[in-house]
Amino acid sequence: MKVNLKKIGSVVAGAAIFASSVAFAGGLWFENTQLINENGAPLGKIAVGANGAITDGVAAALMAAKWGSEAYAMQTVTAKLAGEATCVDGGMAGDECTITDKSVRLEVTVPGGAVAGTYTVGNLIGDFLNRDLEDRNANLQDYPPGSDTSENSNPFTNGTGGYLASAPDEMELYRVTGSMFTPLATQQLHDDDADRSYDEQQDMWLQGDTAWDDTSDDIVGDVTLWAYSMKFSGSSDDLGIPVCTGDVVGSDYTDCDNGQRTDAHKLNAYFLGEPWVISDMEAPTPWFGPGCQSESELFNGGSIKLAKESVSGIVNQGEALTADGISFVLADIVETTHEAAVDVTDAAGNVLTKEKIPEGETLDVNVEGKTYRIHVYKTTPGYTYGAKWADMAIFSHEFKLEDNEEFDPDEDGNDEYQVSLGWKDKGADNLNCQPDHLRTVILYTTDSEELLDDPLEKGDYVPMLQDPANWKLSYLGLSITNDDRDNLKFHLERTRDRKLSKVRVTDSADEQECEVLAQYVKVTSGKSGAFEVQNACDSGTCSGSSDVFYVATRGAVCSGGLRNLTPGTVLMPESSSASGTGDMHVALEYLAPLTIDYSLAGDGESNWLGGGVIIVANGSDAFGTTNPGALDNTFYGAVNLTTAPTEMSFVFAVSEKAGTGSSHDFWDAFLFPLNAKNGSDASFDFNSGNWWEEDEARYIYAGPVEEENASQEEGYISERGSVFEEKDDTAVEFKIARELAHAQLYLSSSESGVTESGTLLWTMKEGEDKTTSNDVNIKVAEIMCEGTCAVGTAAEPTCDTSGMSAQLYVDDELVGADTVDAAIPYGYDKFGTLVILDNEAVDSDVLVSVGGPVVNTVTAGLLEDAGETLSAENPKIVKEVVAGKKIVVAGYEAEDTLEAASDFIAQLKRTQ
């Protein structure tokens, strides 16, 4: 199932699940405190002590710089075409000509470059996705299933050279890291109850290729695997997160009191770039006997649960958590079982239901058609009324990730994604196997599932998870357009001879006037000086450099009686004329296949085996068995005939560079024939009966996706990104890529919906641009249309778009010819300074207090209320001390405060 970007309803519905949790509705966040809202406006201030150290001011400045740089909102710009295009049919009176298609291309320039939270994977056309996107598999870079601690470890490894039993056994992968896609940034997790810290590394993994697809008639992105991985490590080991953080019997870190279990500690883990509470951990079932030989080995099995809290906290007996006017009252703690007895009451205090919930369990309670998930982390039974309490939460959502099962297997909606969990056994002794530390969590989908069963065409995407569809992988098409291509045309003149007044020929003492006999081929480029030839002349070396040259397929008759020119000779305007007249031509007389330099297609180089040349070969040479000069047998192999057909007298070839970096020497080529035997009936477009087909050109692949040369029809796109435009009796046309193209896969957040207000409307002609008040520049780059004329029209129709314009909407409904997203900076003049002194702070503000309690009165008050202290043993505090309102960033020493500021910046999260 591939999804078109214009049909985003299912993604919006999936993303809406987060709307029930206000703390993650959009903008920038630290834990549960929103610092920038979904409109891009900063919501709080940074308070620094009036008596603070210089380093406190530096720390505040660093934080403010990051805060201000994130002050932007996403807006959608949509184009709707206005006016009418006119179809021009070439002047043929009476012929009907109609418009069949209209479109507009927009360009949006955002201050500061690319929007944070996106990443583009640019792969060579016809190449597989692997660790080196530029290698064309020549220097295959993969991820072997060895140690899980190496820089290039495989996500599915079992740590000892194999794969997890529940995971794919793939190593030819491309990895997207947190340095590329910011939501994947490595996170520091802290278990406050156990005073333990962990690192979490997030990565995306892609497998597939980008190549021409005959069904789509375009370059497509064929993604065969998409995976997301979370890898945990301890502060001093690579084991991961333990099920139990307290005292254990022997080395079984799954056996301890409930209060010492990680899933009772509200530990946040980052899932798809957002913090979720680990609400349950169930390690794999233990077994006896050989198998756990090392702490380095990973084992699959078990399950975990991740949850979002709507509201949570310590609830004393008789107190309640409230959501939507419904109260969940802690009535009692069952002394024998430690269950929390909860009364669910309405706004009037009427008891709707009574429930008992064990420690570590979640209970779904249906109230008036809405389901509430009540979770009990831990309880204290006490012996008196006031001593009984429970740590409880109301979850807006909870997912189950069970090894070797679909994501959240008890719910519908994510049947395309599989889960693989990897665990390690601390104290492994090869006798009693008890995996007890969660090392890896992997979600993946493959082409065996419906999401990836077809290649992605331009505009299609797949979501990472179906519900919630938080991220998406889109296919943007190629990195170049026709504006980045050169027109290259071979035109056959069948009835008119060409006279060249001054020609310098090899071994000629004098210039000659030559008549190039029809039929001949005129080759033209859209770039000045695109072609070059060199020849040994009587007066030295003469050369040609021009945007045109002629191939005398029947030769040329020259004056002076020296000699006539052989069929196949190339004539080109000379780059520096000895006579100074500027109309001198140099003749490269045909003796064997001729090479014309066309370095535009070779990135500055000109070599048949590297790109950047045009070859002219007559019938005998094209189908010979020897290697003339710079050509090798790839040329003859591509021609694919052992003897020349009698009706064919020339073969032309265009060689292009199709690689870079480690694939620098890779190339591709187009070849096509000319039947020049029949004078005025000469033709490019004919069927030889066994290989040359009408409307086709032969293509030599660069590989590795395609490895067999074949004939291709009009419209084919080469691995450089050039287009085989057209082939008829008298013309063969290409659009040659001036730079090596890449096929683009785009990783981004899913669409977050469309706002109801703030619609702007501009009407703009092609080429006009508009700058918003936030310096975002939007330009109508091109308005395009196509026309069709009635049968019998001699000339191809053209479209006149001068009467058309594009109406640009900002945040209107997603319809129209083209839609783009832009990051709109909020603007400093709207929010002013972010840094204030502690004596200017207002208690109702969202505040981030920088510096210790000795120099910052705000910090002093917040730490006192929270029962927190700074010391040599606890040198840094980076913590939300009042949910949704107050944050402390402080250090025991000056350098500790700077480190605390860096930690704060690293933990900021952007959501859309």
Low-confidence stretches: 1-25, 91-95, 110-116, 577-581, 751-761, 812-817
The termini sit apart by: 25 Å
- The residue-averaged pLDDT reads 81
Inertia-based shape: elongated
- Specify the structural class: mainly beta
Give the tally of structural domains. 5
Which value, in Å, is the CA radius of gyration? Answer: 35 Å
Oligomeric form = single chain
Portion of residues in beta strands equals 35-45%
Q: Considering DSSP H and I runs of 4 or more, what fraction of the residues is helical? A: under 10%
Main beta sheet = 10 strands, mixed
Task: Describe the 3D structure.
A hairpin with a 6-residue loop joins strand 20 and strand 21 (340-345). The chain has seven helices and 60 strands. It is 7% helix and 43% strand. It folds into five domains: 36-71 and 828-911, Rossmann fold, CATH 3.40.50; 78-113 and 758-825, no CATH class; 127-302 and 420-446, no CATH class; 309-396, Tick-borne Encephalitis virus Glycoprotein, domain 1, CATH 2.60.98.40; 483-742, no CATH class. With 912 residues, it is mostly beta strands. 45% of the residues are buried. The two termini are 25 Å apart. Mean pLDDT is 81; it is low at 1-25, 91-95, 110-116, 577-581, 751-761 and 812-817. A ten-stranded mixed β-sheet has the order 38-33-32-40-39-37-34-31-48-47, with no helix packed on it. The radius of gyration is 35 Å and the shape is elongated. The longest helix is centred in the N-terminal third of the chain and has 16 residues, at 54-69.
